[in-house]
Design brief:
Blueprint: E1 5-8, H1 15-28, E2 67-68, H2 76-82, E3 88-93, H3 96-106, H4 111-114, H5 119-129, H6 143-147, H7 161-175, E4 178-181, H8 185-196, H9 221-230, H10 232-253, H11 255-276, H12 314-324, H13 327-338
Parallel strand pairs: 1-2, 1-3, 3-4
The structure holds 3'-phosphate-adenosine-5'-phosphate sulfate (PPS).
């Protein structure tokens, strides 16, 4: 199995669910994580990543890192300074239309969205009134391309658009071993487990960071097309890697084997949900009984979490708890475990605001 792993955590793409898988895998094997400096929850996003953002790099207190997976603005040359040469690089993309719908609600308080009623009204004026130079507005325009380190302020009608899109795709292709697709999350987990030589049990998860139904908004056909035009660079990148994803499925696993493994994975997940979860599924934050397990809330989104079954033994409880521990709390815990000398008992350990 691979033990040097870099997961590039993109925004609103099911990346927190993958982060949880990596945290659990690494924690149970005593792996060392490349965590953000000073107990931050992210690697100083939206600045371009620099190796000294990782705790233990400047101080040289860590000899070797196994896993790096927190939010960053990607820069391969800097990641390569932290991670060993044989590191496996992977990431995940989501359909730019549903991604934008999620982003609009989750980042409702960024300047570009703050005063807009709906995604439709934002898109009606975006070509004229979007101001790229204001902090955090990058979430509103080709957010995926921005995360990967490209210029996100590009227009489909510009003469050099095709060249920019080809360059972005070629760069991602060169720098990553595997690109997963949110819409095919379970299939993605099967591809990942094969690439990492992991067992099926290693990629079992519960969906984290999902929005409550009341904060989801169906989009019209017109809005869908507008989003594809506005986020044309993300759309091109997504189309390309959606195709390569299915090529990989066929060449590396085969469609029939994939079906069988996805079926088994869902069975394992259902069984675990039955054992661990009080309601058997995600619930709104107001219904979460243990405040320690409440996920971070943002913008106009209601982000769901889980309650544990009350009648489970201690060992099972510890296991179940790891599956439903939100990103910020889990990152804090790993940091405390990894750097006990930097987290004296007198320092309070509480989740920081994330975005
Ligand atoms: N397993 C699985 N399959 C499909 N989709 C999933 C899965 N896990 C999480 N999600 C959806 O991903 C959205 C949250 O993404 P992130 O965790 O990347 O968000 S964040 O950037 O870390 O805040 C969020 O999307 P929205 O609900 O549309 O906002 C989650 O519902």
């Amino acid at each position: 199995p691979k033990s040097h792993i870099f997961f590039f955590k993109t925004h609103k793409t099911a990346s927190s669910t993958i982060l949880n898988i990596l945290y659990r895998y690494g924690e149970s094997r005593n792996f060392t994580f490349a965590l953000p400096l000073n107990k931050h929850s992210q690697l100083f996003y939206p600045y371009f990543f620099a190796s000294h953002f990782v705790e233990g790099v400047s101080s040289r207190s860590v000899k070797e890192f196994n896993i790096m997976c927190n939010h960053m603005r990607f820069r391969k040359s800097e990641v390569a300074k932290v991670m060993p040469a044989d590191t496996f690089y992977f990431s995940i993309l989501r359909h730019p239309v549903s991604m934008m719908e999620s982003i609009f609600i989750y980042y409702k308080s960024i300047p570009a969205f703050q005063k807009t009623r709906s995604l439709d009204s934002f898109l009606e004026n975006s070509w004229r009134s979007y101001n790229a130079s204001i902090t955090n507005n990058h979430f509103a325009h080709n957010a995926l391309a921005f995360d990967f380190g490209f210029d996100n302020n590009v227009n489909e009608d510009a003469e050099d658009f095709g060249e920019k899109a080809r360059m972005a795709i070629a760069t991602i292709q060169k720098e990553f071993h595997l690109i997963l697709i949110s819409e095919y999350f379970d299939e993605s987990m099967i591809l990942l487990r094969h690439a990492l030589c992991w067992s099926l049990e290693d990629v079992v998860s519960f969906k984290l960071n999902s929005r409550s139904k009341q904060t989801r908004h169906p989009l019209s056909a017109n809005t869908t097309e507008e989003i594809k035009r506005w986020n044309a660079l993300d759309w091109r990148i997504y189309l390309h890697f959606n195709t390569t994803f299915w090529h990989k499925v066929e060449s590396q696993i085969g469609k029939e084997q994939m079906k069988r493994e996805v079926f088994k994975l869902r069975e394992l997940q259902a069984k675990l949900a039955h054992t661990c979860l009080r309601e058997g599924e995600a619930v709104d934050p107001s219904l979460i009984r243990n405040v320690e397990l409440k996920p971070f809330q943002s913008g106009a989104a209601v982000i769901q979490g889980y309650n544990l079954n009350s009648h489970i033994d201690e060992l099972t409880k510890t296991k179940c708890e790891r599956f439903i521990t939100p990103e910020l709390q889990y990152t804090n815990r790993l940091y405390t475990r990894q750097f006990p000398e930097l987290t004296g008992n007198n320092k309070q350990i509480k989740p920081r605001a994330k975005k």
